[in-house]
Amino acid sequence: MGAFARQRGFTFLLVIVLLASLGAIVVTGMLTALASTGKGEDLGRKFVRTQAALVAFVAEVGRLPCPANPATDTGDEVRASPTCTYPQGTLPWKALGLRRDDGYDPWGWKISYRVYAGAAGSLTQDAHPDTDSCAIDAGASMVCCDPTQTQGTSTANGTGDGGFCKKNNKTDPNNFLAGKGFSVNDFGAVRTGIAYVLISHGPSGYGGYTAANMQVTSPTNANELANMSATGTFVAAAASASTVSPDDPAHFDDIIAYAAVSDVISKAGRGARTWP
């Protein structure tokens, strides 16, 4: 076992306690209804473990991992920094130090994973190579931002410096966060600035991938189609009645979890610092 895996195991103990304040787990009507069967509880545990692993990953390397190739079962992230090769891919469980089983929901479908890698600064990119930027800051780190100084230009979004904090400009953290992240429609309330989304495609599995690396039939429900997309807006909503067929446009059984960019960075200990 490598140093990274050993350290992450220790970090789990610290991070798991902090996840309650993330406000990240979205419990849909489906998850609540399934709690008595044990499957909802099982999925909730997997979401918590995965979110702890994602925070630990950022704490270690300063960025979020890219999704895995959904047509393979290696659990590896696949990326070409600053972008991801499979933006509509699945959970990179191996890269996160998790078990293969953690990459599957209780119905045997692969858990999908979306991470922000857009124009306002990819959260998956390596540290900035330019000499005027901070080499210790990768895509999901604000260590080189300084909330007390805004020397020089104060842009640090995608149009300013690739989404990094510039060490010579002591960039305002608000500029780093500007425009970063997905949108999630959470039971009618739109949340912005979302770093990643975890998606269980529910009992039907429509839109997800099987253990044999084959994609299940695409849904006809507009919200489930949105959850298949690379960039959303992603949707958390109440599940349809059990009598509604998965082929019906009214059918919905997806279950998602997500966290804000600022929360992930804060819990990973990668927040802005006051620099001399």
Structural description of this entry:
With 276 residues, the chain is an alpha+beta fold. It folds into 2 domains: 3-118 and 181-267, no CATH class; 133-180, no CATH class. It is built from 7 helices and 7 strands; from the N terminus they run αααβββααββαββα. Strands 3, 4, 5, 6 and 7 form a 5-stranded mixed beta sheet that branches. Helix 1 crosses helix 3 (39-61). The longest helix has 23 residues, at 39-61. The radius of gyration is 19 Å and the shape is globular.
Number of helices: 7
Helix % is 10-25%
Strand element count: 7
Mean pLDDT: 81
Q: Could you give the order of the helices and strands?
A: HHHEEEHHEEHEEH
Strand-residue proportion: 5-15%
User: Sheet with the most strands?
Assistant: 5 strands, mixed
Distance between the termini: 39 Å
Radius of gyration from the alpha-carbon trace, in angstroms: 19 Å
Uncertain regions spanning at least 5 consecutive residues: 1-30, 151-160
How many domain units? 2
Shape, please? globular
Structural class: alpha+beta
Quick recap of the structure?
Helix content is 25%, strand content 12%.
Features:
276 residues, alpha+beta, 2 domains, 25% helix, 7 strands, 12% strand, disordered N terminus, five-stranded mixed β-sheet
Write the layout of secondary structure elements.
Elements: H1 3-18, H2 29-34, H3 39-61, E1 79-80, E2 83-84, E3 112-115, H4 158-161, H5 173-177, E4 182-186, E5 189-200, H6 222-228, E6 234-236, E7 255-260, H7 261-267
Parallel strand pairs: 4-6
Antiparallel strand pairs: 1-2, 3-5, 4-5, 5-7
Helix pairs in contact: 1-3
